[in-house]
Each structure stands twice: as C-alpha cells, then as structure tokens.
Amino acid sequence: MATYYSDLHCHSTLFNYNRQLSDAWDEHLNIIFPSQGDFTKLAKGKVRVVMVALYPIEQGFVTVKPLELGTGEITDFLAGVVFGMPDERADEIQYDDHDYFDDLMKEFNYLQSSAYPVTHKIRVKPGYRTSFNYRIARNFEDIKTILNLDDDFNPGSPAEDTIVVVLTIEGGNALGVGQLNTKIQDESFLEARVIGNIRKLKQLGPAGHEGEWCPFFITLSHHFWNQLGGHAISLWKVIRKVLDQTEGINAEITELGKLAVDELLSTENGQRQILIDVNHMSVKVRQWYYGHVAGRNIPIIASHTGANGKKTMEEAGITSDDRPVHDVADEKYNNSIDFNPWDQFLADDEIVTIQKSGGIIGLNMDQRIMMGKEKLDKTKRHAIGKTPKKSREIWIKPLADQLLYIAGVILTGTGDPSVIWNHISIGSDFSGMITPIKAFDDATTFPDLDEALFNELMRRRGSEATLAGKTESEIREITDKVMWKNNLKFLEKHFN
After folding, report:
1. What digits encode the pLDDT tens for the residues 403-428?
2. Are 364 and 10 in contact (CB under 8 A)?
3. How far is residue 222's CA from residue 379's CA, in Å, rounded to a whole number?
C-alpha cells in the first residue's frame, strides 16, 4: 500500500475562494456540494502532491436559461445553491465588465495567502493534531527537495506534514476570453489579450523569481463557449435544463484558439511550455490538437476523465440535426450499460494516442463518468444497507473496470505489457461539482481507495488478461503507480 498519494486534478480552492471563506484550509459544510478536496481533507487523506486547478467561474453558471436572466435574485440563488457563494460574489461574476483573468489572479493570490509559512493544525486521529502546510512548487526538483524524494519517488519525513501544490488551470476562459465584454471585440483585440495574458502567466512567480510559478497545464475548453474552440457536452439532468451550454457545442477550434495553443506551447515566451489538457474539448478540437502536436514530443494530458467504451472518436461523437443535442446525449446515457458513452470521454483510439505521446490519463471519481447507467443503478442497489467495508468493495469495481479497460486498450495498441500501467493515475476532480463514488467521496478516502483497488485487482488475477500471472508485489506496484508514482514520473519528465 502506498504511503502517500497524488492527484492530477483537484479544485482545492474553488469553493473556499468563491464562498469567501477566510482561508484555503477551511472545511466549511455545504449540504448541496460539500467540499471534497480542500487542503484539510488532502492532509487527512495523505495526498502529498496535488495539481490544483484554478478556475474562474464562467458567467454561464450564473445565468438562468429559461428566463434569460442576468444579475438578479434568481441567479444569485442559483449560484448560492451550486457553489454556496454569497450574493455579492454572484453579482460580481455576472457584471458585464467581469474579467476572468483578473479572477484567476485573485484565486491564485487566495491560494498563495494560505501557503507556507502559514500552517494549519489538523486532527489526524482522536486526541492528536499536526501542523500542516502546503507549498507551491516551481518545478520537479523543487518537489523532490520539499518532500525529500529518493530515486524511486519515496518521500522522506517532510511528507508527514507537507503538501506540494502544482499550479494548473481549468478553462481557456481564464485567458480573459468568452466574457460578456469580449464577445463584442474584434480579432486584433482578442489576439493581443490572449498573447498578453499567456505571457503574464509565464512570468508568474515571486519577485526576483518571475516565471517559477508558471502553471503546468491548462484545459483549453470547459463548460461554455470561450471563443477559442468548441466544448463537449458536460452538463446533465436538471442542471443542463437550467443552464445553457449550447453555444459552441461540438464546434471546431477557432483561429484565436490556434494562436492560444501555439503561445501556450511555445518555449520562446517564458521559462517553459504550459501543456494542454484535452478534457472538455469537443471531438473536432481534440482531433485537430492530436494532429497539431503529432511528432512534436508534446505529451497529451486528459486530467479527469474515463473511457467511454467506443472504438473511435467518430463513433463516440454526439450530434443532432432535429432535436436538442443534450436530449440525444441524455438518451445515450439512459441506454448505456458499462460505460458512459458521451464523447467528452476517451475512445480507444485516443487512449492509444495519449499513451504514445507519453501523456497521462487521470481517472475521475464522478459516478456517471466511471460507469454507464445500468452499472450505476446496479452498484447503488448492491450497496444499500452494506457495511462501510462491503460498500467499498462494491464501489471500487467500476473504477477497477475503467483501469483495466484502459490498460487493455493500451496493450492491444502497443503489444507491450511493460508500458500498460504507466499512463494512468487518479484525477479526482474533487470539489469540481462532481457526484463522487459513494464509498470514496472526498480526499480523506485515498487510503481506503488504495487498499480497495489493490484487493480488487488481486481478486481479478484469474480473469483479467492484463493481470494474469501477476504476483502480489506486482499488483502492489500497479496500484502504487496509479495512486502515486505515475503523476510523479510525469512531473519529473515535464515539469521543468
């Protein structure tokens, strides 16, 4: 069992910042969307390397679709329910002159304000508290020094009370586009804005050390149209009937988006590249991006996703000519069995593309992303009334199914058993408004997740081709990679 854990995608500050809480350690309770990945929970769950996704909330989240309402009591109420934010914060996001890039910098400053030398006392067991801190890493060598990592990524004593943060961003809107006040601007204005803000990100760092906090990666797309390129369907159930994400759904990349990608990946405008995370991109944008970086030694990241069980991206594509595309998507999910078939998630051909690029896939802890409707309904029924231990044994199965499916696809695509476990990790998306797998519903459960995954893989040695003949220590090496090492190896290679 791994001693400590890593997370490829976690919103550790999103709720606390937008709820205007005093610091990033606060575990403030919200009934609708409780905090799942704040720093207190990360500390308790022994997560010691976390890629924190900063996210300027899109204005589409505070606009009510049926009534086309902007600033007002109903939209304030919606924002309060979804994010738990006070009315004045919701109003701020709704203003015509709201600036996403400015909001990004404010969330970063909020994160920084609770970082080392600030410490926070946490009860790690009854009657015992430890003072924890987190530090924003400059590069992998910094991570290695902070945690005293050896050559096999085993941390030393600093990991007992220290969390390392790697900065990432979710949503290209963070570059200051897709706002109410940029949709009326001409192309030259937008180009200058995107270039300028990317260069500011690449200079992020303390005085005298500019550039050392340059974000590691960014998702180009998120939930709403951002003028860079199309996004995939991501809202479901009641939420998609209240919020409108149809503008830009399934669209191609724009010329502005191509410019942003090249600026982000450039090594001539800062100390390093900002890598691209393909989560939330439309199929058309992903296809363009895979071709754009082919042969360029650029790793592809899918930080919080799952397999959709489809052979190709074309087969997975969700389109509609005569009815709302969300109706088509809902119908596909309602008829699904083992996997969620939505095209936001990974088809077999792109799993192989990501692996061959040297990239990484983070498994999302959301119930609907992990499994199709039939499997989810069965899992819920089986878990009713069970003990916590038995519940963990039930809920781990869909996550193990995802892991084994992706490993099997990589084995088929490469024919090389030695590489199939090296590109998969956990990208929980905790506090990203997910509905998590019930037995593993926040970051405190990482140790339980590790143990349950190990036990489940041990049980499957006789039925899974990718596990055939594996010893107990070899199974343990697989789970150690998924829960800790693969993220560290990826950082060692690319976070420089």
Report:
1. 999 999 999 999 999 999 999 999 99
2. no
3. 29
H helix and E strand count, the chain: 19, 10
Separation between Cα atoms, residue 493 and residue 12, nearest integer Å: 24
Q: One-letter amino acid identity for 220?
A: L
pLDDT given at position 236 = 82
Q: How far apart are alpha carbons 370 and 376 in whole angstroms? A: 9
Q: Which two tokens stand for residue 48?
A: 């010691």
Name, in order, each residue with C-beta under 8 angstroms of 306's C-beta and a sequence gap of 6 or more. Answer: 339, 340, 345, 346, 363, 364, 369, 370, 402
pLDDT, one tens digit per residue, over 168-213 is 999 999 999 999 999 999 999 999 999 999 999 999 998 899 999 9
Q: Which residue has the tokens 């000519």?
A: 321
- Strand, helix or coil at 443? helix
Asked whether the beta carbons of 143 and 494 are under 8 A apart, the reply is no
CA–CA separation, 20 and 485 (whole Å): 34
Joined tokens for residue 137: 């890493």
**Distance between CA 327 and CA 376 in Å, rounded?**
20
Token pair 């792109």 is found at 350
d(CA 318, CA 303): 22
Q: How many residues are there in the chain?
A: 496
